[in-house]
Amino acid sequence: xxxxxxxxxxxxxxxxxxxxxxxxxxxxxxxxxxxxxxxxxxxxxxxxxxxxxxxxxxxxxxxxxxxxxxxxxxxxxxxxxxxxxxxxxxxxxxxxxxxxxxxxxxxxxxxxxxxxxxxxxxxxxxxxxxxxxxxxx
Amino acid sequence: xxxxxxxxxxxxxxxxxxxxxxxxxxxxxxxxxxxxxxxxxxxxxxxxxxxxxxxxxxxxxxxxxxxxxxxxxxxxxxxxxxxxxxxxxxxxxxxxxxxxxxxxxxxxxxxxxxxxxxxxxxxxxxxxxxxxxxxxxxxxxxxxxxxxxxxxxxxxxxxxxxxxxxxxxxxxxxxxxxxxxxxxxxxxxxxxxxxxxxxxxxxxxxxxxxxxxxxxxxxxxxxxxxxxxxxxxxxxxxxxxxxxxxxxxxxxxxxxxxxxxxxxxxxxxxxxxxxxxxxxxxxxxxxxxxxxxxxxxxxxxxxxxxxxxxxxxxxxxxxxxxxxxxxxxxxxxxxxxxxxxxxxxxxxxxxxxxxxxxxxxxxxxxxxxxxxxxxxxxxxxxxxxxxxxxxxxxxxxxxxxxxxxxxxxxxxxxxxxxxxxxxxxxxxxxxxxxxxxxxxxxxxxxxxxxxxxxxxxxxxxxxxxxxxxxxxxxxxxxxxxxxxxxxxxxxxxxxxxxxxxxxxxxxxxxxxxxxxxxxxxxxxxxxxxxxxxxxxxxxxxxxxxxxxxxxxxxxxxxxxxxxxxxxxxxxxxxxxxxxxxxxxxxxxxxxxxxxxxxxxxxxxxxxxxxxxxxxxxxxxxxxxxxxxxxxxxxxxxxxxxxxxxxxxxxxxxxxxxxxxxxxxxxxxxxxxxxxxxxxxxxxxxxxxxxxxxxxxxxxxxxxxxxxxxxxxxxxxxxxxxxxxxxxxxxxxxxxxxxxxxxxxxxxxxxxxxxxxxxxxxxxxxxxxxxxxxxxxxxxxxxxxxxxxxxxxxxxxxxxxxxxxxxxxxxxxxxxx
Lengths: 137, 816
Description:
By secondary structure, chain A is an alpha+beta fold. Chain A has 4 helices and 7 strands. A 5-stranded mixed β-barrel of chain A has the order 2-3-4-6-5.
């Protein structure tokens, strides 16, 4: 066997090791209901912000705490707590990807990148925005 | 219906040229294909003449399309959706350019524009390789032209016509305003939507053109590889293609790092690299391109590694196309903050990948056995052996990154639902740190090796000094550098220290190789210089990441007892009340004011004063809030930084006291009528009327004898026995009373001069409110040695440029 083959085999072995540990680390997408079944486990939820409930953020008292309510397409809703500043344009986001843990009834996010906004106004205006812009006044 | 005031001609001209560019590139493709497969020189030259003519028409058309769009945007023809959606009247010229590549169709246009420029150069320079190489290039042009065609074929939309009118858009289908012939005179058609505030930045002007030049140029080495397979002249093209490969790696690398610089200084992501899918998808082709670069050099010197070179060059371009698909199809929408949203072109974008992927790999597999290779394997002490291994490591690292980034695709195909784990950044970093260690060591040692065989004694003799120096420096850095990043345990910390040694080793070894190995011959030292730059970049990444610190940890205890939720850890923002010095790590920070406003861009600047404790050192930061160009909405925070030679202090405001001034619901309550020196009360103390001045003309106010103004001087005594003075004022103009209120921020108290009672006494209005305390929530980060990241990048680019010149010289010498 050539030396090169040995090296390549080693690299393949390492790659498999990396892959296995990577797979072990993956979390899963859940609905709000199924996330409730897995309390304390890191999961990802795609939902939208429940506009009927206020977004709580009082930077004068605590700039590192945001709380709001989400609901998903199945009609379930939950309270979310996030321990960083309020993300830019949170109220405008039409869809929101959250990564955190369900603790009791509250979905708790402790990583800064645990909230990802699907914010159509950011890079390309979505049709709804354009429609709104056309019919304003 | 006839609409009034529409300028339809530019759109017709533009769309005509868009279609012409499609037709012309099709003709050029066929003609170059025929020329490549021609049997006789006469046949070849006549096809080639035709191909060149068609390609020139294609180039002209693309430039005409571009010029038309600039014309439409610069003249504010808002009947066109492109102008209406992406530009506005208030935007200065450079952003009018930027808004062209903000749009999806505009960025395709930028891509095809660069391919035109590169194609023109290749027509002049490629010599006998012109026909096959340009066949591939014109095929790319054809594909890109479909992206801006906007034709409907069998009910499927092909491409997106940039010259479509607003009233032709889907969203406008039922808008009532288009039932009016004069719809252009309606206010919402008088101005465009403008460029998003977050993108109004000089980086938006320069970063996309450079990045797209990088992306566009990756086609050239790919085209040479395909040409080599096609013509069965398997090894002839590598010398000519090497400068192009270097150019591509150089420009794409520059583009990526410009994006990193932009993220660092403007977009408040809290750093220059976040392993965001969109960042990853541009890094991955670059890594494979760099791998290809090294195997090409190996082949040119020794004849080894040609097969893998083909594989890398094909794969890097397929990855560019795959990245295009990922970032533009909307598939990354749930994992990336940058990606475009779905524009209904996903099938076309996927096809764009497959029309290159399938024929390229089929050709590669079919000709694989014919590609010459050397049976005798490389010696373990040869340069080519380790360059090959290094390239393999680069490639595997790229595969790991693109694999992780492709999880949404995996979910789509396998109907699975998986996402990155709890800590996505670390799942990249813990792998890439080992890649960094390997690459650092390889780049340090391999330069000293010779092709074919080096000999242990030679290597030891040359390497012991750089190794010793690097060891001393890195031990020094490890001991005194203050790297105590133990968040992920001792193992990862050890890996950081090891990587630090590898990076320093790379810098020292390559720098000394310029004098030892090359005797200071700088013209040939491009690769060593680039490797020094890479090493410096690694050192910068390691130091700035491992020692990145949050200075604004909310440790002061103020306000904390009030919020029961505050038991949780991160607490990265701190509240600064205006005028109150607050403890922040080694500094005290004071929020001074937010008086500075730039009206054009609707930007408010916050002045925050920093003083270093126990020293006279001080500086101001001016982070700002930029309000979106249109429709209001939340302000977009932009950071500011203070640069030291060894670190950046980097701050941004995340919130301020009600920017829209609507939440202040507290009311003024009237005091009883007060004579001079009378006292009244508020919840935290007492208020004494000291004096009343008629038409004051000093200090804060300037009235003359003809005015009617009364100023009260009021002394406020807080419970905390602090004493404040306030000067509320009342003046009458045109028989209407005007109030100029005064505030005592420290007491949350506002005072108004309400009226004069019975000619002798006055009534004050007293308001106590939470909302009026001006404050900001500030995040301050410290990035040590981040300048090394930029310095390393610049050195690397310089190294690339020297290499390009050197390899071009070699290529032309070998031809002669």
